[in-house]
Amino acid sequence: MRLAYQYRLRPTAAQMQNLNHWLDMLRSQYNWLLAERFDWWELHRCPVNACPLVSSITPPKEQPNYYNQKRSLVALKKERSWYKAMHSQVLQDMVRRVGLAFDRYLKGDSNGKRSGKPRFKGKGRYHSFIYTQAENDWIVGNQVSLPKLGTIKFIQHRPLPEGFDVKTAIISKKADDWYITFSLVDESVPTINPNIDIEKSVGIDLGLKDFLVTGDGLHVPIPQYYRKAQKRLAKEQRKLAHKKNKASKRRAKQVRKVAKLHAKIARQRKEFHHKTAVLLLRKYEVIAHENLNIKGLARTRLAKSVQDAGWGTFITILANKAEKAGCLTIGVNPSGTTQMCSDCDAHVPKTLSDRWHACPDCRLELHRDENSGRNMLKKAEGHPVFKARGVRSTRWTMKREARTLSAG
Q: What stretch or stretches form a coiled coil here (predicted)?
């Protein structure tokens, strides 16, 4: 099992200056290595053993990759001695980020989805660095000893779990302060509890009228934090737009003020997601949810409401918390779950404004999102966890079969 614990750092003024200096040096070298890759791509656009479609009068060069760019760090430290003050793991991870951004642009990720063209990092656009081989003994009480940076205090608002090994440490600069995130691993903890109770299973329907509705009737209202803060945010952004001098201290202060307001909205939403996930996992052990095309929905006229709901972040938090609790989340295709009756599988057409499901065949009547949540769970029955226990149908389908037998 892998976990992440984040704490707020309390660096001194000298340490904060050093952290900012590291970020600026990493940003400069990131831009240099990214430019090196772009230069090679514009000249060659193919490996050295292939015939290019675009010819060049320059002799062919070796294609930049993670390994040869990592070897260039040795020469970098000789030419620019100030880079010797930076830990080697931090520099190597910066090279990895360059390769990851460029490969996603050319080849795509594991699913074949390509990202946009990577951009050069402007001042203040490089926010974090990583120690890729952190150790447990770096942490002593409320202090963490970071190589080449020294001992920095942090607010340990919750203790690290016992039995887990610290693998990485991420130092990040956010709108209000510095933070450290420890990545923890314990291979002995199972991902899914072998004694999981599938009777405690439910399907959930995500929406904009209610944040979610479960198949057994639990309605969680949507908070709409961005909508509530929209007027105040617009006021602060207008003040920022009036400050034309980009080098002024007043503009920098207003930028921080707007950033903090955005951060507050994001944290309110994140806290709501965490509390909702805990509410579900205390009651259920198997949760079936819909695999929504959130990117597609974010390009419609409902974009602001979809982004404010944060369904993608919630599903990720729910899956992580379920794994930690030994529970299971199952994503299913939501196609037809609203139009199909959860009791008799009859097709009952509805428009988006129809909020009530009334089946003319079996006379089932309930909220349309509850009906959809039940259909989510029915679709999830093909998961190996259900098959391993010989589960053939959910409790709602069992009621339908019992009713059919009694009628015969």
A: none
Run of H or E residues at 240? helix 225-242
| Amino acid at site 252 | A
3-state DSSP assignment of residue 368 = helix
d(CA 403, CA 408) in angstroms, rounded, equals: 9
Cα(30)–Cα(182) distance, rounded to whole angstroms? Answer: 24
My answer on whether 164 and 225 are in the same domain is: no
Average pLDDT over the chain, rounded to an integer: 86
Residue 113 predicted with pLDDT over 90: no
Residue 118 per-residue DSSP state: P
- For residue range 9-37, what is the model confidence (pLDDT) as tens digits? 999 999 999 999 999 999 999 999 999 99
Domain membership of residue 196 (yes or no) is: no
């974010």: which residue's tokens? 298
- The rounded Cα 12 to chain-centroid distance in angstroms is 31
For residues 235 and 140, state if they share a domain. Answer: no
77 three-class SS? helix
Q: Residue 77 in contact with residue 92, Cβ under 8 Å?
A: no
Q: How many domains does the chain have?
A: 2
Q: What is the rounded end-to-end Cα distance, in angstroms, of the chain?
A: 51
Buried b (16+ CB within 10 A) or exposed e, 144-179: bebbebeebbbeeeeeeeeebebbbbbbbbebeebb
Query: Hunting for tokens 């360059």 — which residue is that?
Result: 98
Around Cβ 256, how many Cβ atoms within 10 Å?
Answer: 12
Q: In what order do the strands lie in the sheet with 143-146?
A: 128-131, 165-173, 178-185, 2-10, 150-155, 143-146, 139-140
Task: Identify the domain containing residue 395 by its residue range.
Answer: 201-407
pLDDT digits (tens, 9 = 90+) for 198-245: 788 899 999 998 999 998 889 999 999 999 999 999 999 999 999 999
Q: Do 165 and 277 have their domain in common?
A: no
Which residues lie across from 128 on neighbouring strands? 172
